[in-house]
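Kindly go through the following sequence and its backbone structure tokens. Advise at your convenience whether the structure tokens fit the sequence:

___
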Amino acid sequence: MIEVRGLTKTLSSGSHTVEILKGIDLTVKDREVLAIEGPSGSGKSTLLGLLAGFDQPTAGSIRLDGEEISGMGEDQLALLRGRKIGFVFQSYNLIPTLTAEENIMLPVEIRGQSEGAMDRARDLLEAVGLADRAWHYPPQLSGGEQQRVALARAFAGNPTILMADEPTGNLDSATGRLVLDLLLKLNQREGTTLLLVTHDPALSRLTDRIIRLRDGRIVDEVGPQTK
């Protein structure tokens, strides 16, 4: 499903060069749920952004579902994301002038699949317990409700891969647990491969595997038998 070989990301600042990722090798199986842990500055979010095609690596190879993406242009990457990738941001990234239902419908409509988009959005709102909030705008929703809408939106296009960057990071523990349970429930229902960047040990314990980054390298891997 996901194959990463020799992945490197280097940034330049004036005369200084900073190596964010240093030769990452990683394989993620179809439908696996993987947690990516590590201290701040370890390269977790950079790795996830590269896998989602938001940025280009300095060197190395990324194959998603058999497609090499590391040499793709932005238009190709945008099409790939539309077809295969859902993304959940820590800051929700909902459009404030669209209702909850319209936010969920948007990625489906962008793909030119307007027929059935409303039914899909309502089904997902029901799944995340927000059927009665469909016509509310993001400013009218709590942080937890906004993140639940963001989860529904990420699944709206039936992605084969879903990535989430600290999906519970802005939420209190009780709300974070609710969002976490919904994320894993939706993942099981939809049959996606799931990658999570997290500092939340409660979330990591529920995944199939944990990899830990430090200083741009994978330093540890924990499988289900040792968690």
